[in-house]
Batch of 3 targets.
Target 1
Amino acid sequence: MLLTLATVAVLGFFAIRLAGAARFTLFGPGRARALAIWRGIGRRHLWPVPFVLAAVLGAALVLVRLPVLSFGWWSAIGGVGNPVAGSTEQTVGTALEWLIPIVFLLLLLPSLPLFALREEELFRLGAEGWSWPRRVAKTVAFGLVHVVIGIPIGVALALSIGGAYFLACYLRGWRATGSDRAAVLESTRAHTAYNAAIVALVLAAFAALAAGL
């Protein structure tokens, strides 16, 4: 009972945050910035995504085999996967198993560019002036920060591979323009394309589950 209440509380928290972010993006000050990011996504941001996703997934499958790296607080209280997707053990076998994740992911989708921009500002902005050890440390930190939202430690470490790719995009943007703001927009567009691909795949999976029920 206690674990059920905990998962409901977490889902309620994320639902409120996602709804607020969607409103800010669709009807508030974030609209223009999000549209500019979406519209700037091109082929160079799209074609690497399957390869980066495959590398992240492969690393995650290996790392979570280690007991210490398989822990995530969301799964420990009865959640499944990422709490942003809204899936729990309590909803398995019911319509809520696919309904809640689809609603959560649809709320998340509009705000993907702004979430990506914030992460790029935190973990990539200014990287042109960093030493390589600092770049590596920030890239690993980018992955591990996802532990905070309940992702298993091994999966979070695997996400550092994505962080390395975004860093490469940032440095490419810096070399092309000499501007850190232009560089962070370049990595943000790559990050947004990557996240959008994940959301699309997960949405398709839950839609297929819904069709089968």
Target 2
Amino acid sequence: MYDIITIGSATQDVYVFSKKFRVLRDSRVITGEIECFAFGTKIELDDILFEVGGGATNTAFTFASQGLKTACLTKVGADGAGEEVKKVLKKAKISTDLVAVDSRRRTAHSVIFLAPNGERTILVYRGASHHFENKDVNFRKLGKTRWLYITSLGGNIDLIKKVVDFANKHKIKVAVNPGKMELKYGLKKLKPIFDKVDILLLNREEATEILRRSYGDDLGIIDDLSKLFHNISVVTEGEKGSLISDGQNKYRVKIRPLKSVDTTGAGDAYGSGFVAGYIKKRNIQYAVQLAGANAAGEVMTIGAKQGLVSKNPLELKKWIKLLNIRIVKY
């Protein structure tokens, strides 16, 4: 019996570093900034790093680090990168019994251009993880867990619905952190699924888009979520903290911002940290503290699995003090 099974993507990540990467302001793009380098030239790299990434593997590492018995349901290609994914998971004592292998497609890859300020641009080949099918899910084994943590399934909301319905039938708790491919379907199609989950995790951009709220409308965003869903809803917003509703109470979580080295995987670290904390103590304040500490540790190191908080309570206590995590009730 597992404590939790994570479901979603697995990638082979390639980080490239160069002091010659530049971040410039540009109002023509949605973020207002572009990462650039001279076209038609050879750029010298300062370093290169290979990591295993993807929502399912990143979150699985958090749960395993917290001492929870964890399995990862993902899809890889029949290639060296796919073998590396399984090797890395096994080394962390995460079960690979649910990993599906696609003989036609390669394992997903990401090339990450890391700027000196810690922000990054990611080139993504979605590969096998983008093509989840019903046959890739072993429902017999899926039933042997207390919790599921679902990330993106390449936009296959029918499969997500099937997995959530299965979990409800078997009294398995569910946390969902949907990706862009799922959110594009809009609230009308997603609400029947979200109504059946225990914890819904979104970032601020995702929440404003799906709720059709302005970006800065904190109270409007969390008020909408508390009215729409009677579960726990978490809206992350990077170094600013998060917004939380438990269906009755609404909270604003504030943290002391720290200088980041690499923001890749920060959302996975926060979301999985919150769920891990909630599983362990069924307490939102503890869940928030573990989430903030987990994300802070992750962004202060390079790679989506480095710096995650261990189950040692003294380590968490140190982070809580450093981040000055505060929870304000609306």
Target 3
Amino acid sequence: MRGGSKTLAALVALLLLVGPVGCGDGAGSDSTTAQASAGESTAGDGASKQGDSKGDGKGQSGSSGEQTRDPGDASEFKPRHHSDSGGGAEQFKVKGGDNSVQEFGEEAGTSEFEAAATVLHNFLDARAEGNWAAVCQYLSKATVESFEQLASRSEQGGDGSCGAVLAAITNPAARGAMKAEAQKADVGSLRTEGDQAFLIYTTDGTILAMPMADEAGTWKVAGLAGTPLN
């Protein structure tokens, strides 16, 4: 790992601390993750909105009467087929820019690239549908546990599952942009080093990097949104 890189440092923070950084279009996943990246207070507030909910999305908050959001049913999510252009990280290098992610570790082989890309697409599709229970299936164990731990600190109690927490803290206004990202995401590279990696993909000309974590031979998403590289 190359030292002194702000971009790489931020992405490693995502991988280790689950502090999502939003996409750079201002109306996309940035809206989704702005609340999450605010830290414990935001996630705690979102979890507290669960109130009397039993996890079915129909409960009412004990303090405000606000209806809780349904985290969805993971069994209802059906993965879709996506085609990716591949080509490796060299194509994403920015002249005179910070290319530490593009140069991170080494380029993965075809089978590993395809497996990781499939996980990312499933994550993006589930997120676009608002099926947060399914989203959590594609997140790394450490990421899931971090959300559940934040929920456990809430004074309100209620459904403290990963899906319920994500449903509570996600801005519904970001739904359209999340759908667009899921439809247009084109994965070009998987850079790996040990059990850490970054998938580099594009959406409408924006180059994004998503941190990934290898768990027993399966790549998992380790953030809520990709970080712009250009």
